[in-house]
Amino acid sequence: MRTITGDLLLLRLGESSDGPMNQRLYRCLREAILDGSIAADTRLPASRDLAAELGIARNTVVHVYAQLQAEGYTRSRQGSGTYVADTLPDDYLASGRRARQVGARPAGPSLSVRGARIVDGASASPFQWGAFMPGVPDVTEFPHRKFSRIVSSIWRRPPAQLLTYAYGGGLPALREALAQHLALTRSIDCDPEQILLTEGVHQGIDLISRMLCEAGEVAWIENPGYWGARSVLQANGIRAVPRAVDEEGLHLPSEPVQAPPRLVFVTPSHQYPLGAVMSLARRRRLLALARQWGSWIIEDDYDSEFRFTGRPIPCLQGLESDAPVIYLGTFSKTMYPGLRLAYLVLPKRLVKAFQAAHAELYREGHLMTHAAVAAFISEGHYAAHVRRMRMLYGRRRAMLVNLIERRLGVDWLHRDSSDAGLHLVLDLPDEIPDEAVVQAAHARGVLTRPLSRYYDAAPQGGEPPRQGLLLGYACVPEADIARKFEVLLDSLAYVARQRKRP
Amino acid sequence: MRTITGDLLLLRLGESSDGPMNQRLYRCLREAILDGSIAADTRLPASRDLAAELGIARNTVVHVYAQLQAEGYTRSRQGSGTYVADTLPDDYLASGRRARQVGARPAGPSLSVRGARIVDGASASPFQWGAFMPGVPDVTEFPHRKFSRIVSSIWRRPPAQLLTYAYGGGLPALREALAQHLALTRSIDCDPEQILLTEGVHQGIDLISRMLCEAGEVAWIENPGYWGARSVLQANGIRAVPRAVDEEGLHLPSEPVQAPPRLVFVTPSHQYPLGAVMSLARRRRLLALARQWGSWIIEDDYDSEFRFTGRPIPCLQGLESDAPVIYLGTFSKTMYPGLRLAYLVLPKRLVKAFQAAHAELYREGHLMTHAAVAAFISEGHYAAHVRRMRMLYGRRRAMLVNLIERRLGVDWLHRDSSDAGLHLVLDLPDEIPDEAVVQAAHARGVLTRPLSRYYDAAPQGGEPPRQGLLLGYACVPEADIARKFEVLLDSLAYVARQRKRP
To answer: CB within 8 A of B143, min separation 6: which ones?
Structure first.
């Protein structure tokens, strides 16, 4: 199949011969867009087709498309490809004449291939507050007066040591308070020195990636799974291999594995995003396999504090002594996300090396914040707040489940949804694209996230992405739940109608 | 050359045949240390010799040595190699019997090669407060009551949007206040949207590394230079190539360069750590070369607020329009290091891609802190504090320079020391090793950092590391400077005496 764009580019690439192919293609495409040779709203050929026409690697085209999109020259439309933007980036409009000269170069070279991949695969949302944003706690319920009083009292006479750079994994007082709390609530067996406080869970995954895994080695991730873990692993050159999940959590192979993973990233307490709890049998088997393979398990326990019925299964870290597990916990859901405070629980033999590398790569500080959180825990406010929120989120979840059952039917609730966490998954019929529902709801003032986005774009075997919606109920006041849910139903009906049209 | 250790290991390696060579070697060495076959204080063979004896890659030995050192089985002595530690790591002493069984394995596999390298090359110090720690401002002079009042007032009614996750580079109010401040004080030409707030300067370097440079590509760094930049670049697989500095800053080649660097990391306002100010001619030439090569300049302007005489030269970012420069600034020196707040000033065409990648890789938050710092700037406290500290640090520097001139002689002050910053460099005669002076001073309660540590371990040509001391005067009250300096002189005399002994 020949395309007009392809013909044009073949011509221009012939005229431009300096630099590597990805830079030449980038320049030719950008200039063709800027000088109008490729008009606004033109659909660009699929990367595979253009690569075949030009006789170059498909990756080169994917990279250049991602670059153009990151810079605002193109935009992608759900399920229908990449289009030339109708409004071009500001800086080129402002200096239009210069940019229109053929061969004009932007200042500095373009993004790296790995940089373009990060942007291309980015899943973080610019919207982080409002019904039904998943993963967001109700920060308006945070006891801010109590916390602020603690903060003020520490600022009254701040010791110099709390204001300068830090070293060694964070304030000892917070790690002691946390070790006690984790022993009581999560059966975690650790000394305070095994805890390393991090700037959010992402920094913990970043540190683990670098310290325990070479570039090019394999990590298993859940599919669907947490986009952030995938992005951080990949940014470190690790091959994040998606593995299916079932009602017991990460599916484990029964056959011997040819190339075992170096890392296995799991969310056993509450599979993200589907909701399954990893069974005890699966946990034991995962631990046995990890020992056999010489792999590390990364246990992301992101919202286990919010289990509304029954008792939680002990975490992997505490299930067996000397387990090859690094436990990840966070204050984002139990206090507030903007605090950016999370932690690793490390096996003892890794502590010194991780402390040295953590200080080296990220430098440490935030000890004033650590002191405030330590006091917040020691004075009992933390446990009390978590208890209160557990009741509140449990009520909100029950309201939402009730609405789903009454207005849509019980089978719309995803089969693995467990009575826990800050969100649930609504299954959609395959013919209703979740991205379209998310957009329709957004236009009506309601936020959700499409389940299909949590699947790896290139699954190796296994089932195709399911359509569904992640609905966060934690940050929606009870008084709003029913009304916002009606808006969601409207959006669903709107998309269903659109799809029926010829 | 055959060594006893090599013979022993050849024997044991023959008995242990499972797993890759680095794991086998690690296990054999560790067991030989634990069961006493290699006694405490034994010097291990040089990695090159042992590799030759065993017929394996030298890198494997280097990696295993680094791993053992990270875990406390060995320690290195300055300039004389690696020794078996006399106190073994706690966890193995506690469970000595188990560990002493031959073949006992630690939980999980060992560090990655890149992880071991990070630990092995680590330069971050556990000590960050006290005379004469370089790079540390006087945090006891920070107007904490004013700042605390602002913090409290924001906590009184915290908007939900400030407590949840963030996206887009940080709070607009802070980026606006900062853009105004930078235009006035640093001739920086930018819109607020070009500013991206980061978790310290390290996060900014990390983001730049990933977005603009492939693994395996070259970045030029100053030699001597900032250890943190080198470590972060290397953690991203970038070849950090050390380049000499002279009295005009980074030395630039007059010959055409075969393989130009993708990134050039410089500290033009105040070369770190020697102190030269990059001349205007050198600045123009660096910009021209970067344009010619298609490289990016990373301009780390870490302490330019503290220039005691004369006017600063405009920063590279503002020297020419559309310059291929990413500017790095920080609040660590002007407010307090534990705040962990820094920023990039990006060229417009990179803004969207960097925002997306930043949210994706690190998640954003800290908007309550951003709001407080924005108010601190807008209400004039920031500029006033910087002005006051400039006077204070200027006085402290003058006192220290005066002491050096009177007690040692003017030629001990490094020739490129400029009248700026938070530290100065004291030159030592070649026969006095700076590491030894640092240790002697530390034993006497005075902190300094050895200049030789700031040189790349493997300089490609150029002069060998110089011996010297980085003396931070910013965090030392005037009343203490003379007394602490005497302690330093004692330490210097002590080391000089030790060296003279047979």
So the answer is: B381, B385
Q: Which residue of A has its CA nearest to B128?
A: A165
Residues A294, B19 contacting (CB under 8 angstroms) = yes
Place of tokens 């206090």: A335
Rounded to the nearest angstrom, the gap between the alpha carbon of residue B31 and the centroid of all alpha carbons in its chain is 35
Q: Considering the entire predicted model, what is its pTM?
A: 0.81
Q: Do B337 and A165 touch (CB under 8 A)?
A: yes
Q: Which residues pair with B413 in a beta bridge?
A: B426
Record the tokens describing residue A192, joined without a space: 């305070």
* pLDDT score of B499: 87
Closest CA to B446 of B501, B407, B485: B485
8 Å CB contact of B128 and A90: no
- Residues with Cβ < 8 Å from A380, sequence gap 6 or more? none
All residues of chain B having their beta carbon less than 8 Å from the beta carbon of residue A366 are 338, 340
* Residue A500 burial (C-beta neighbours within 10 Å; 0-12, 13-18, 19+): exposed
Element (H, E) at A240: strand A239-246
- Judged by a CB distance cut-off of 8 A, whether residue A292 touches chain B is no
CA angle B379, B384, B385 (to 5 degrees): 110
Cα–Cα distance for residue pair A372/A388, rounded to 1 Å: 20
Rounded CA gap, A304 and A326, in Å? 16
* Per-state percent for chain B, helix, strand, coil, to nearest 5: 50, 15, 40
Distance CA A329, CA A321 (A): 19
Closest CA to B115 of A363, A210, A352, A261: A210
- Residue-wise pLDDT tens digits, A135-166: 999 999 999 999 999 999 999 999 999 999 99
Interchain contact, B126 vs A89, CB within 8 Å? no
In chain A, the residue whose alpha carbon lies closest to the alpha carbon of B370 is A338
| Per-residue pLDDT reduced to its tens digit, A14-51 | 666 666 788 788 878 877 777 667 777 788 888 888 88
Burial (Cβ within 10 Å: 0-12, 13-18, ≥19) of residue B38: buried
Test B128 with A166 for CB contact under 8 angstroms. yes
Q: For A164, which of B163, B290, B338 is closest by C-beta distance? A: B338
Q: Cβ of B157: how many Cβ atoms within 10 Å?
A: 7
- Angle formed by the axes of helices B4-15 and B21-34, to 10°? 120
Residue A299 bridge partners (DSSP): A266, A327
Rounded to the nearest 5°, which phi and psi values hold at A55? 70, 40
In chain B, residues with a C-beta closer than 8 Å to the C-beta of A91 are: 348-349
Is the CB of B103 inside 8 Å of chain A's CB atoms?
Answer: no
Write the Ramachandran bin of A409: left for phi over 0, alpha for psi from -120 to 50, otherwise beta: left
Pairwise CB contact (< 8 Å): A231 & B361: yes
Q: Decide if B337 contacts A165 (C-beta within 8 A).
A: yes
E strand intervals along B16-66? none
| Closest residue by Cα to residue A211 from A238, A191, A230, A189 | A238
> Of all helices (H) and strands (E), which one includes residue A244?
strand A239-246
